[in-house]
Amino acid sequence: MGRLFTNMGWLLGGRGINAVLSLVYLALATRTLGLEGFGNFAIIVALGQTVSGLASFQTWQFIVRWGAGSGPDDKKAATEATGFAIALDLLSIALGTVLAAVLCFTAQYWLPLSTDLLWVAFGYCIVSLLALRSTPIGLLRLRFDYKRATTAEATQPIVRTACAVLAAVFMPTVAGFVLAWAIAEVCVAGALWFAAARRERIDLSRISLRNVPRSHPDAWGFVWSTNLTESLNISAKHVLLLLVGAIGGEAFAGGFRVAAQLGQALVQLAQTISKAIYPELVHAKDDAVRIAQRMAYIALGGGIFAVVLALIFGRLIIETIAGEPLGGVYWTMVIIAIAGAIELVGASLQSLLVSAGRAGTALIARAIPMALGFALLDVAMGWQGLKGAAFTMLGSSALAVIGFWIAILSLQSIKITVERPAGKDAPEPSPDPR
């Protein structure tokens, strides 16, 4: 547990820097572009993040899962896993380019995006694909080098803030701010690849889609289930924003982006906990359940505290950063914060399922509530506008976490832990062979 909290400390420190600087560039973008201009900017960024999220694979999980060998096999396992991950990244770029072309050049028919911004959106999508960085992150996490990873990732908010200042002064347009975001993506990807290459030798001759599946027959099943699970996580945020813009227009998209960026700080915290805990669960094996349960209890307390802060200070923060006209998204932000608190509790539960080889179960538990939320989005927005969209997020998150918990209780190892015989001399339960 000591190493887990140390790693979480580095990750949360990086998130802290990002959170503080994100307030700066959010204020610059909203006040410079205005609500509708910021809405167009938010739609373009969401398109880029949707394309990279849907097309990319969670290669860091593959490296952590298959890159840890023992003794002399350790380096070989890491090399094979890295080669497999890079091959998947190249596949992601190819598939993502096609997806970007389809989404961007049909956007004028379903999004409130002007024709002159279509090439800007397509360019940002391509940059997002070329800046994929899950593989170097996986190499650093494989060696538990969270310090080096956090230092490299800090490049993004620092460069983004500096470029946002330059955009506000010299190019105060939607294209100017998109360019600022694109430069930051390239810089952080370069920093992470440089850090990973210093920590672990990257053998480009081992790039292959065959080596790892040859040694691990379940590899492709794990690849597709984790990819689809992350695609659903992307949908919960970026695709939802695109749909809000498609239904309500660019002003709605801008308002929802402001509320989500502030309220979803908790979701980012949940992702941080998940990323820190997954390698520990893979290595812990028999202690995985105990670690996941403890983290869920800690997350519950942290989530409640953060929601209280959102209730008390949320309106002041929104009006200070984005201006009084956006004060109306206060309750939307609070609802999204509650959804984030629920995700915070569910992060360790989802990681436990994935580390136990139940990524497909986690996918189903996430997919059904997500589909239900999207189906009800139009009705919810007609009922309560932006708050209705936030309620679909809240309901989807709650149902997904309930699904994770039910799935965990169905595992024999969890039942044994819960139903362990009382008494001082009670024998230790045998781990579930699954």
Question: How many distinct beta strands?
Answer: 0
H/E element sequence: HHHHHHHHHHHHHHHHHH
- Cα(first) to Cα(last) distance is 24 Å
On the 0 to 100 scale, the average pLDDT is 81
Helix content: over 70%
How many separate helices? Answer: 18
Largest sheet: none
Outline, from the CA principal axes? globular
The domain tally reads 2
Strand content: under 5%
Gyration radius, to the nearest Å? 22 Å
Class based on secondary structure composition and strand pairing: mainly alpha
Low-confidence stretches: 412-434
Structural write-up:
- The protein is an all-alpha fold and 434 residues long.
- It folds into 2 domains: 1-216, no CATH class; 218-419, no CATH class.
- Helix content is 82%, strand content 0%.
- The longest helix is centred in the first third of the chain and has 54 residues, at 2-55.
- It is globular, with a radius of gyration of 22 Å.
- The model is unreliable at 412-434 (pLDDT under 50).
Topology:
Layout: H1 2-55, H2 59-66, H3 73-105, H4 107-110, H5 118-130, H6 134-142, H7 146-153, H8 155-170, H9 174-199, H10 211-215, H11 219-248, H12 250-263, H13 265-284, H14 288-322, H15 330-355, H16 359-384, H17 386-409, H18 412-418
Membrane topology: Multi-pass membrane protein
Organism: Erythrobacter ani
Keywords: Cell membrane, Membrane, Transmembrane, Transmembrane helix
